[in-house]
C-alpha cells in the first residue's frame, strides 16, 4: 500500500502570508492547458503500478485540499469524512485504559465520544476547566493525551495552550487542539506546541453550510504516518466532491473570517447594552458570540423564532448568520447557562443583522 500520494505542484513560498496561501496552495503544476484547479477525480481504483492504487488510499482532490490546509496550519494535513471522524481517529492514538484530559465545555460530539469510550473501558476521561491553567497542568501528570478546544464551544473560554502543552509533553502526552472555532488564520496551534490540530472543515474552512468534512494537521512525520494508516484502515476517508467543495470554500477563508469577525465585534459592542441580556461572551476574536438571555430558556427559544434574517439552525461558520439555544441539546453540559444562545455571525451587512436581532430582543419584553 502506498504510504502517501501527492500531485505535482509548486510548493508555496514559505514567506507568503496566510491569505496568499489560502488562494495559492494546492494548485496543479503550471503547464499549458492545465486547469488552475485540481479537477474532481471520481475513482474507486487506479491503474496499478503507481502511488495511489485504490480510492481509499488517496485522491488528487483530497491531496489538493490537504496541501492547502497544511500550508495554513504549518504541517501536513489529512482529510476525513467528518470532523468527528477526525476526532475519533485521533483519540484512537492512545492505548487501552489511557487517561485523556479534555475541557468540560468541549464540542458535544467530542464529549459524547469520550463518554462512550470511557463507558466501554477504552479510556478514562478527566474533564477540566480549561481556563484554570494550574489545575489542567496538574491533571496532565499521568495523561496520555491532552485535548484542547480554545475558544471552547459554546462557553468561549480561552486556554493557555503554550503552558499546558509544555506540561503535557513533560508527561509524555500527545497535545491535540480542535482549531475549528479559531481557524488557522487566528490561531496556529502547531506553532504553540500542539502535536495535532483537528478541524471540523464543515464549519469555517468550507464556509457555505453545504459540506461535511474533517481534517487533522501535524508536523510530526511519524504521527502523520500513523494517522494516515488509521484513516485508511478505519475507512474514515473524505468524499471526493466534499473535498473539492471545501477547497473552493477555503480560497475565500480570509475574506469570510475577516468580515464575520468585524461583524461579530460590532454586534458585541451594540449587544452589550441590551436589557434583555444578562451576559455577552466574546473571546475578542472570531465570528462566534454567545449571549445569555436574562429571562432564561423560554426567552431564548422565543428569540430564535422571532428573526427574519438570522436562521435558527445548529452548526456554525457559514456565510449566513445562524443561532441556537445550546441547551436544547441533551448532551450540552449543565454548566452552560440554560438561556445561552450561540450566534454564528455571518458576512451579511452588520446593520441588517443588528436591526433583525435588536427587534427580536426588544419584542421579548
Ligand atoms: C462541528 C464540530 C465538530 C464535529 O465536526 P463534524 O464535521 O460535524 O463531524 C468538532 N469540533 C467542533 C469544535 C465542532 O464545532
From TrEMBL:
Gene3D superfamilies: Aspartate Aminotransferase, domain 1, Type I PLP-dependent aspartate aminotransferase-like (Major domain). Keywords: Aminotransferase, Pyridoxal phosphate, Transferase. Its EC number is 4.4.1.2. Belongs to the trans-sulfuration enzymes family. Its cofactor is pyridoxal 5'-phosphate. The keyword Transferase applies. It comes from the Bacteria. It comes from Nocardioides luti. One of its GO terms (biological process) is cysteine biosynthetic process via cystathionine. It catalyses: L-methionine + H2O = methanethiol + 2-oxobutanoate + NH4(+); L-homocysteine + H2O = 2-oxobutanoate + hydrogen sulfide + NH4(+) + H(+). This is homocysteine desulfhydrase. GO terms for molecular function: cystathionine gamma-lyase activity; cystathionine gamma-synthase activity; homocysteine desulfhydrase activity; methionine gamma-lyase activity; pyridoxal phosphate binding; transaminase activity. The keyword Transferase applies. CDD domains: CGS_like (cd00614). GO terms for cellular component: cytoplasm. The lineage of its organism: Bacteria, Bacillati, Actinomycetota, Actinomycetes, Propionibacteriales. The modification N6-(pyridoxal phosphate)lysine is found at residue 203. It holds the Pfam family Cys_Met_Meta_PP. InterPro entries: Cys/Met-Metab_PyrdxlP-dep_enz, Cys_met_metab_PP, PyrdxlP-dep_Trfase, PyrdxlP-dep_Trfase_major, PyrdxlP-dep_Trfase_small.
Amino acid at each position: 500500500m502506498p504510504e502517501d500520494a501527492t500531485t505535482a505542484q509548486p510548493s508555496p513560498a514559505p514567506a507568503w502570508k496566510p491569505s496568499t496561501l489560502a488562494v495559492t496552495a494546492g494548485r496543479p503544476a503550471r503547464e499549458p492547458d492545465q486547469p488552475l484547479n485540481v479537477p474532481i477525480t471520481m475513482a474507486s481504483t487506479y491503474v496499478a503500478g503507481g502511488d495511489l492504487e485504490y480510492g481509499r488510499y488517496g485522491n488528487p482532490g483530497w491531496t489538493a485540499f490537504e496541501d492547502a490546509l497544511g500550508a495554513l496550519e504549518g504541517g501536513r494535513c489529512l482529510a476525513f469524512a467528518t470532523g468527528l471522524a477526525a476526532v475519533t481517529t485521533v483519540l484512537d492514538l492512545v492505548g487501552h485504559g489511557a487517561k485523556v484530559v479534555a475541557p468540560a465545555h468541549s464540542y458535544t460530539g467530542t464529549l459524547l465520544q469520550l463518554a462512550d469510550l470511557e463507558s466501554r473501558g477504552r479510556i478514562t476521561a478527566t474533564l477540566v476547566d480549561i481556563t484554570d491553567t494550574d489545575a489542567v497542568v496538574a491533571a496532565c501528570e499521568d495523561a496520555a493525551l491532552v485535548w484542547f478546544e480554545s475558544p471552547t464551544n459554546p462557553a468561549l473560554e480561552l486556554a493557555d495552550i503554550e503552558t499546558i502543552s509544555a506540561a503535557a509533553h513533560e508527561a509524555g502526552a500527545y497535545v491535540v487542539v480542535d482549531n475549528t472555532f479559531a481557524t488557522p488564520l487566528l490561531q496556529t496551534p502547531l506553532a504553540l506546541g500542539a502535536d495535532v490540530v483537528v478541524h471540523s472543515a464543515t464549519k469555517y474552512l468550507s464556509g457555505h453550510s453545504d459540506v461535511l468534512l474533517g481534517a487533522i494537521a501535524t508536523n510530526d512525520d511519524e504521527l502523520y504516518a500513523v494517522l494516515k494508516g488509521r484513516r485508511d484502515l478505519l475507512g474514515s476517508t473524505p468524499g471526493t466532491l466534499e473535498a473539492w467543495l471545501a477547497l473552493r470554500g477555503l480560497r475565500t477563508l480570509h475574506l469570510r473570517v475577516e468580515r464575520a469577525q468585524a461583524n461579530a465585534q460590532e454586534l458585541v459592542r451594540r449587544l452589550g447594552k441590551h436589557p434583555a441580556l444578562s451576559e455577552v461572551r466574546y473571546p475578542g476574536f472570531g465570528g462566534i458570540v454567545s449571549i445569555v438571555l436574562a429571562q432564561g430558556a423560554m426567552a431564548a427559544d422565543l428569540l430564535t423564532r422571532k428573526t427574519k434574517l438570522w436562521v435558527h439552525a445548529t452548526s456554525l461558520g457559514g456565510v449566513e448568520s445562524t443561532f441556537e439555544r445550546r441547551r436544547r441539546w441533551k448532551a450540552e453540559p449543565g454548566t452552560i447557562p440554560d438561556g445561552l444562545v450561540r450566534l454564528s455571525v455571518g458576512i451579511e451587512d452588520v446593520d441588517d443583522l443588528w436591526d433583525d436581532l435588536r427587534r427580536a430582543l426588544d419584542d421579548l419584553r
